[in-house]
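User: Design a sequence. Structure:
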């Protein structure tokens, strides 16, 4: 499939989804964009621990959040543009007329409050139809998912049975779903390669799509969103939610640990695919990656930072260092230009320093968001591995010590380190 046919496939999906989602919104009475009073953005580089923090905070009944990232909704409408630019940056000028409403309709349908429930809720089936169509755009569409749902039980078992039915017909591959503690899928191996040969709108591993209570109607929405791509899209987000207050939770993690996590993701055979750059005739020659896999000469992983440097032929560890540096450089630049935006800085290291320190930091976050403190017991605190390739361990980055330490001498990386409160010369103390 060439670039023209791949882009045409995305266009067909947009054309198919737009009227269906508009009908869903009308039938369900989903909230309007103007109902959003506050947008809370968890920002940081990839592999900084934001998935864990988002999972915890999304269990607050006072916050409305999607079941995963909102990025697939943006990418559905901007996929050809972003691919051709070779960058994930979105600015205010990219928010064309009516685009905000189209993205919002998809996002509003996906919103829930509090933790997963045992029973199906209003809008759950509709959210399943949309999310799955975006995750497997070549084989699925809402009407097909709707048909299969007729044979599935209600509640939390509904999603698992839907996957089994779609998998049996070879319409999806369940191995692309995260081994999430809220959802257990036994007997499934690991995938190899991207879930589609050319078009990925949502990066795997996919989050299990579980029922949640919809936001109450007639009230203002306190919205929680998470994505590493916020780093490059903050002006776009401000423009989209023009009438809302923007608050940023800046989650930091030392570069050695983040770079190591990024390298794990790049070398994973099944996860974190974002762009097939062969669609725009951009070859990849990344030593340590491109020669390792058959897809390594064309598939980019994680965010694609805007940069003037030729990042498409750098060693894989330098690509990861640039992804960390660029993410925080863009966030800090935005905050400097917008001093009125409220920002709370927290460190991932503090979240893993034991129950007391973690509880203190999480209380700081809920106070910042203006929501009730959340119980970290009784199973509410997320456990296990979430959107990760390995079980977290202190200072696991030392397994790549010789590759990572030279990267810490980069001037730009060192400058960002210091701005975030990490002393580059004290890397031996980093966990």
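Assistant: Done.
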């Amino acid at each position: 499939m060439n670039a023209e046919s791949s882009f045409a496939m995305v266009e067909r999906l947009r054309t198919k989804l737009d009227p269906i989602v508009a009908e869903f919104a009308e039938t369900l009475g989903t909230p309007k964009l103007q109902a959003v009073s506050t947008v809370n953005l968890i920002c940081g580089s990839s592999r900084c621990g934001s998935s864990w923090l988002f999972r915890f905070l999304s269990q607050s009944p006072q916050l409305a959040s999607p079941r995963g990232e909102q990025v697939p909704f943006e990418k559905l409408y901007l996929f050809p543009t972003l691919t051709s630019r070779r960058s994930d940056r979105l600015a205010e000028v990219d928010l064309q007329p009516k685009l905000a409403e189209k993205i919002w309709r998809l996002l509003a349908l996906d919103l829930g409050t509090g933790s997963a429930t045992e029973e199906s809720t209003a809008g759950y089936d509709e959210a399943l139809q949309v999310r799955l169509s975006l995750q497997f755009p070549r084989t699925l569409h809402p009407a097909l998912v709707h048909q299969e749902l007729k044979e599935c039980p209600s509640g939390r078992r509904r999603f698992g049975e839907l996957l089994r039915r779609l998998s049996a017909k070879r319409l999806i591959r369940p191995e692309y779903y995260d081994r999430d503690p809220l959802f257990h899928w036994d007997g499934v191996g690991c995938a190899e390669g991207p879930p589609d040969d050319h078009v990925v709108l949502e990066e795997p591993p996919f989050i299990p799509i579980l029922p949640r209570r919809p936001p109450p109607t007639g009230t203002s929405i306190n919205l929680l969103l998470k994505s590493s791509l916020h780093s490059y899209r903050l002006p776009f987000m401000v423009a989209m939610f023009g009438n809302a207050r923007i608050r940023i939770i800046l989650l930091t993690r030392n570069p050695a640990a983040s770079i190591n996590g990024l390298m794990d993701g790049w070398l994973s055979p099944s996860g974190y695919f974002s762009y097939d750059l062969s669609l725009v005739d951009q070859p990849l020659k990344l030593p340590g990656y491109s020669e390792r896999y058959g897809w390594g000469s064309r598939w980019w992983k994680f965010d694609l930072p805007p940069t003037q440097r030729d990042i498409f032929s750098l060693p894989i560890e330098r690509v990861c260092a640039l992804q960390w540096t660029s993410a925080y450089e863009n966030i800090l630049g935005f905050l400097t230009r917008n001093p009125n935006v409220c920002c709370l800085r927290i460190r991932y290291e503090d979240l893993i320093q034991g129950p007391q320190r973690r509880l203190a930091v999480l209380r700081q976050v809920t106070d910042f968001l203006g929501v009730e403190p959340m119980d970290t017991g009784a199973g509410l605190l997320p456990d296990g591995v979430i959107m990760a390739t390995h079980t977290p361990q202190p200072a696991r980055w030392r397994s790549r010590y010789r590759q990572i330490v030279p990267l810490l001498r980069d001037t730009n990386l060192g400058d960002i380190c210091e701005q975030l409160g990490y002393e580059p010369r004290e890397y031996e103390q980093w966990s």
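The first strand starts at residue 36 and ends at 43. Strands lie at 36-43, 64-65, 112-113, 221-226, 245-252, 273-276, 299-301, 342-347.
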